[in-house]
Protein 1
Amino acid sequence: MRRGIPIFLLLSLLGSALLCGCGDSAAPASGTAGASDEPLSKPEFVRLAEKVCWRGDFYQVHRGAQWRKRHAAELEKLSPDAAEERVLWAIEFPSIRREATEIAALPAPRGDEKKVQGIVAAIEAGLKEAEKDPASMEAESVGENPFSRASELAYNYGLIRCGNVA
């Protein structure tokens, strides 16, 4: 595992800096479209899913920094690799799981249900793989990252922020 700021954390930080303050304050806080199971239009689905991913990235960066600060003494006693794995389990993995759950809860656009299910399934598969081998999150090559397939599917669907799953 390399030292320094993990690439996924750096990308999340950059994205959060660019998007900070963006969004619709009138949108539901949960990221869902509301109580209706009526299919969303694709633009509305993309907007809401991207919000879910933005919040997840924001959480990972800011809550991760807070968590690292609170647990600095504990992390200093660990090797850099072990400390990074501890952060993955405390912040990153739960956040990614929450993103997948919230996206799955959005009513998919009519005719795109299988595409959306495929994206969510790929996120869940990537998470399962990453939990088995946390060091895989540091993969230098995009194809080696456990979320490569999820990123590809999300990006191709129009989910730019969500295309950077980890």
Protein 2
Amino acid sequence: MKLVENVVYLLGAGFSQPVGLPLIGNFLEKAKDLEQAEPGKHNLRKIIEAVGEMHATRTHCKANFEDIEEVLSVLEMQAITGRQASSISPEDFTAFIRTVIGAYTPEIELPEGLAETGRWGADQVTPDDCLVARGSVYRHHVPFVVGLLGFRIVSPGKGEQWLYYEPQRERERRYNVVTLNYDLVIERCLQHLGRFLRDRSGVRSAEEELEIIHLHGSIAHGPSIVPPTSLKALHPGLRKMWRRALTLLAEANHIRILGYSLPDNDSYIRYLLKAAACEAQNLKRIDVLCLDDNDGTVKKRYDGLFESRGYQFINGRVETYLMSCMSRAGASGWTNAHGANYWDGTLLDRRHERALVDAGPDLFSES
């Protein structure tokens, strides 16, 4: 019996930032820009005005009121103790988050030709031309999702309506995603592929093939969003997801953390990872890729958490990692096999190893 190893990707904000999503550090700035561009349209003024009042009345404490976590933490404390005159509720917090993220989430454009005629054109001769429009901000994320799915995509014939894929018959790795992000970048990629990608039987769609766990909820989960505050606790509506995330992490052979800086106040995530490590029987590797500062602050946090011989931290950009993973080992063109042309998305792990190990940290330098 062939062993199928479990790989879990744990995603932070650095995974979604390349497509234009705001980070914690610039969330308020992005919200203000949105309100200024379209006054009143997004109902953001209530929170923005509350922040302005905090700026004006600050007298006895040091505070960074451009940091969304610090702002919402103070507002939440005022709200739950009945001290907030403007009656900002938890629903206001979640609506604010959902609105800003939704407004900054771009659509994924169909490939040229297909968008215009609904059919594949003769000039769409590379895999990139068939997966996403040229120059799209999702140009690295969509191929990465294909890699997570383990699909081999068959080159389309001119005039065909669908792009067909073949699932890997004997998979060496099974992928799952645990994300700390509220956004739906992975889901958007799956929905995008579902518009034109079909298996040979024409029955299954790409959206059925990947499990995604949102630990803090998502903009699609109604009220079950845990705001990024220092008072955040395990929301009752999300406990099922946390239990599932713990199971996936504990059963993982490989944990890969992308774009998550492990902030000091994210104690729940630290204990989730520790609980998973205590239960893990077959964990071989922990790879962490995150952009760090000159003092190595993020690396020090992870070094204080992990001591596994299979752990490594790489200071780098997620976007570069995605591009490198899906452009190696012939991924930039079609491969001929059995009389047909394929784009092989089943080699993600081989590309992962090359990106992280063979190429080394210089691959992720800022230059």
Protein 3
Amino acid sequence: MPRSARARSSVRSIRAFSLRWTNRPRNSTNRDVNQTAPGLWRTLLASRRGASALEFAVVGALAVTLMFGVMEAARYQFTQQALRSVAGEAARIAMLRGSANMAARRPPCEGLSGALAATTFSAPFLDNALLSVQLSDCATQGAMTLVTVTVTQPFAFVMLLIRPESFELTETTRSFFN
């Protein structure tokens, strides 16, 4: 057979095979549909279809969890800092009241115990109805007076995975004045 006839013959056979392969019925009983279990697993493990979706599901879930965890930690730190600010402001008010008592020739600890009205403090993201500001342990030694200020606020994480129950954040400050 001449060379060109052989080439034409092989082209015809390839074309016939590709037509048979693309036009075959999908429900045919061939090896692709009725594979044995080990062969099916081998085919599934060798396939790369859906690999990107699976990788995104794993990495995306971790990224979203990390993002919400960072946001929760930031909210916790922000609330703690707001409590520190309120405690500092309450200590300043205690010093001013104690100094006013001393200027009026009254004992410096007069009126410096118990709760302060939380509405006098403005701190972002703190609920004034739940904020508790207590003055305690007022003592005078010589010319120095010491007052302890305790500020508490209930706090709960939004993501229940971190700590599901609510708890109280507490900030304590001691104020000296003379």
Protein 4
Amino acid sequence: MGVGGEQPVPIPKFDATGEQQGYWKVDEVSHVDAFSQAQSAREGTALMNTGTEHLSSLRAAYLKSLADKTGLSYRRLGSAEEFSEQMRIKSLGIPKVITTDMRWLFALGALLAFMATLLFAPLPKMRS
């Protein structure tokens, strides 16, 4: 899913508490992605280093070629509604049957029922 604008903008840098600590600089990021680096090593070709990896922008052509090479598809999003619609497209999903253990729910129900009888059952009267 491609999201963002066409113009490169600085990428904010955050500390461990979530406070912004400025923006990423040229010498603080790798300028070659892992996919291109691995492909270059396999094929013996030169790496394409743009030198702008410290900036964020939507590079649709690159994302499309990456999707093609990996057998995926590329979609561009513009709004939350579009994202919601795209996520519901059945052809983009991979259906799987997931088994879930539900026994703990029955055990919890039995425990709660037992606790309720202890708390709310009338106490027997003792003879003196």
